[in-house]
Amino acid sequence: MAARDYYSRGQNLVYNRPVLAIFAVIGVFLVFDIFRQLGTGTIAVTDLVSYLWNGLVLGMSLGLAGVGLSMTYSILNFANFAHGDLITSGAFAGWATAFLIAGLGEFSVESLILIGGPIAVGSNELGINVVNTPLALLAGLLVAAVLTAALSLLLDRIVFKPMRSADGVTLMIASVGVALFLRNFLTFSFLTDSRGLTGGNVPQFTVAGVTFGGHQITLVVVAALLMLGTHILLQYTKIGTAMRAMAANKDLAKVTGIPTERVVKLTWIIGGGLTGCAGFLIALQQGTLTVTMGWDLLLLVFAAVILGGVGSIYGAMVGGVILGIASRLALVWIPASFLLVAAFVIMIVMLLVRPSGLFSGRTTA
Amino acid sequence: MSTGSLQTWAEGWLGNNDVRLLIALALAIGGLYALFSVVLGFQLNGTVNTLRRVAFLSAIYAMLALALNLQWGYAGLFNLGAAGFMAIGVYTMGILTAPVTASPPGFGLPLPVAIVGAILVTGIVGGLAALPAIRLRADYLAIVTVAFSEIVRLTLRAPEFANTRIAGVAFGTGGATGLSLPSNPIRILFYTDPAATAPAPNALGAAIFSAVEPLGIEQTLVIGWAYVVALCLCLGLLYWLMIRIGKSPFGRVLKSIREDQQVTQALGKDTRLFKIKTFALGCALMGLIAILWRLSGGYASPRMFKPIQTFYIFIALFIGGTGSPTGSIVGGALFASLLFEGPSFIRRVVAEYLQLSNAPDTLVGALAELGTLDITPLLAYSVQDVSISALRLMLLGIVLVYLMQRHPDGLLGHRKAIASSVALSQQATREDDNE
């Protein structure tokens, strides 16, 4: 009976969703190919584990950065192209703070606030890392969250609030304008120099030939804690319930007496705060910072959010991790210059096969 | 009162006649840049060259906006991947024309054949991309197309394809360093052997060169202007084509899809097919226009096809107003002359007339002087290369937000080509039109 059942389900799949069936076959083939390559020794087990670990780190970055995007996407109904530059803004705000705290007295305030840049501040002399200067990093994380939340609120007040009734495409185009403005405001203020951030001996652990960096672990742990916090907030508080209600049906939420404008504000605050944290942590893990950091990540974050299903917080997390691991695993078959291409292809395939994402229908839960 | 009547007169004179409107616009832009040249103390050659550059960019952006208008203004397909299709057009042409012996090698085909090939390839890729994509919502379509254009750019940049051999055929994209393109084809009008490094002018070339030489105008400038004239002819042709398409039964179906897809389907039209055709046609046109753009420079690199290129075209389109071909031309010209080229000229005027000392290294240094009410350090900081280009892009961002908030239909959006063949109702007058 069971075999018959599976057979008919398979038959259904092939007849009704041929595209999905083809991609499923390709996926199964690739998984088998990994085992075959492991068996024949073409790739070593340590390589595979380090791909998985690096993929997890990238995935947690994308997931944390994606939660805010997913929230605004579901509650305000538009794809926010300025999200990448909110990530960058958070990173700059947080790192200026961390530099200021770590180097006050030793270096000029000007050079610290500008995070080095045109004026040389040796990041090695400052020696910021998670063991040497945990307080500077914690302060940086907090300031990144607060300032990005404030920036999000300000942008909402100036740009998005006057066009609350506009359709998604109009809002999306306006957000492209915001993205251009933000990124180039940062360029104008900080210029285009790439900055080294961390210094000193960053602790790292090597287990059976695979290296786990201290800042990678920090990112994964803090991101996991922040996501857990977001989950508790959304699931067990009144405001979380109101946000979920609004994501599900805006008119009904309004009729029920939910103060929608206040919910929108809180969405920007929570989403912006998480985005700022994401920017700060991603910069910490990368060890460098440029003004295009967030913009370069934006499409990947979109990919993570869409993969998980727009509006779903878990979707953003799971989507990020799957995308991160899949794009790093792709290195088994393709050269490194096609890493991003692989991630974008995954996103496009996902949109074609299942546009509602893996966690479809579960808005903000 | 007099300004009011002047406005009425201007509106009456310009409002109903697109040709007059476009001529007035060209004169205004030309006048502005002639003024810039006088202020900056350019020689005649410099002035004419400034005008050439502005006219060239205006024509290119007007054509790109027209092509995008076909997809977004007529059929409502939100293509944020324009830069990718432009790259496909330029690179196909470049690879087809590159000599077999060159590095990276190509196919050594003559230019006209290569252009036709490039248009076909871009159109086919556009059609294939549209096949699955048009089922998507507008915002997903935007994300998919921008991802597509990034895939194209990253692939062209990848060292793996810079100089490769597939199935025994050697070719290459040149990777991150870019690809050389054939020399400007308009040179054939003026030279007997245009490919030579120091070519001899033919009869026409000799006559024109000797006529303008006493005025201090260089040969390259004559060629540049000839190219701009050719571009303007292409622009006129494209404009005529768009008007024709708009008025044809095909165009009416497109506009009805834009208004309400379900009604169109209910009337028995296969909207999918119409959308795919439009997408493919628009992409093929973008490929062609990009070829015209890059042929004058003789060089293409993946850096030129970043998403910002697509946003430039959208800004041009939104300034003019979606759905109106005349609006696309107005938007392209205004974008190229005021927003794209304007800031660098303002910066040159500032640098020329204010004796600016050395710029401070950082914004903090520039702002510190503000305490003593001295704004020159801030100005000096602002007119540096990096800062002025950042300020220009900030301005573009503000313009985009302003347009979306106040005029989502653009300057000429109220003249959006209506879907029916005859006007069915008087268009409601909008309040903010009088602002």
UniProtKB/TrEMBL annotation, chain A:
- CDD domains in UniProt: TM_PBP1_LivH_like
Molecular function in Gene Ontology: L-isoleucine transmembrane transporter activity; L-leucine transmembrane transporter activity; L-phenylalanine transmembrane transporter activity; L-valine transmembrane transporter activity
Q: How does it sit in the membrane?
A: Multi-pass membrane protein
**InterPro entries named in the record:** ABC_transp_permease (IPR001851), BCAA_transport_permease (IPR052157)
Broad class of the protein's primary localization: membrane
Q: Where found?
A: Cell membrane
> Where would you find the membrane-spanning parts of this chain?
20-39, 51-79, 91-115, 135-156, 168-192, 212-234, 266-285, 297-323, 330-353
Q: Which Pfam families match?
A: BPD_transp_2
The answer to keyword Flavoprotein applying to this record is no
Ordered alphabetically, the record's keywords are: Amino-acid transport, Cell inner membrane, Cell membrane, Membrane, Transmembrane, Transmembrane helix, Transport
Q: Which GO terms describe its biological process?
A: D-alanine transmembrane transport; L-alanine transport; L-isoleucine import across plasma membrane
* GO cellular component terms given for this protein: plasma membrane
Matching entries from PANTHER family are given as: BRANCHED-CHAIN AMINO ACID TRANSPORT SYSTEM PERMEASE PROTEIN LIVH, HIGH-AFFINITY BRANCHED-CHAIN AMINO ACID TRANSPORT SYSTEM PERMEASE PROTEIN LIVH
What protein family does this chain belong to? Belongs to the binding-protein-dependent transport system permease family. LivHM subfamily.
This protein is called: Branched-chain amino acid ABC transporter permease
**What organism does the UniProt record list as the source?**
Haloarcula sebkhae
Give the taxonomic lineage as stored in the record. Answer: Archaea, Methanobacteriati, Methanobacteriota, Stenosarchaea group, Halobacteria
TrEMBL record, chain B:
Task: Recall the GO molecular function terms of this protein's record.
Answer: branched-chain amino acid transmembrane transporter activity
Its cellular-component GO annotations read: plasma membrane
Q: How does it sit in the membrane?
A: Multi-pass membrane protein
Q: Transmembrane residues, as ranges?
A: 20-42, 54-74, 80-101, 113-134, 222-242, 279-299, 311-340, 386-404
Q: Where in the cell is it found?
A: Cell membrane
Q: Please verify whether the record's keywords include Ribonucleoprotein.
A: no
Which keywords describe this protein according to UniProt? Cell membrane, Membrane, Transmembrane, Transmembrane helix
Has UniProt tagged this entry with the keyword Transmembrane helix? yes
Highest taxon of the source? Answer: Archaea
Q: State the PANTHER family in the record.
A: HIGH-AFFINITY BRANCHED-CHAIN AMINO ACID TRANSPORT PROTEIN BRAE (PTHR30482:SF10), HIGH-AFFINITY BRANCHED-CHAIN AMINO ACID TRANSPORT SYSTEM PERMEASE (PTHR30482)
The protein in question is named: Branched-chain amino acid ABC transporter permease
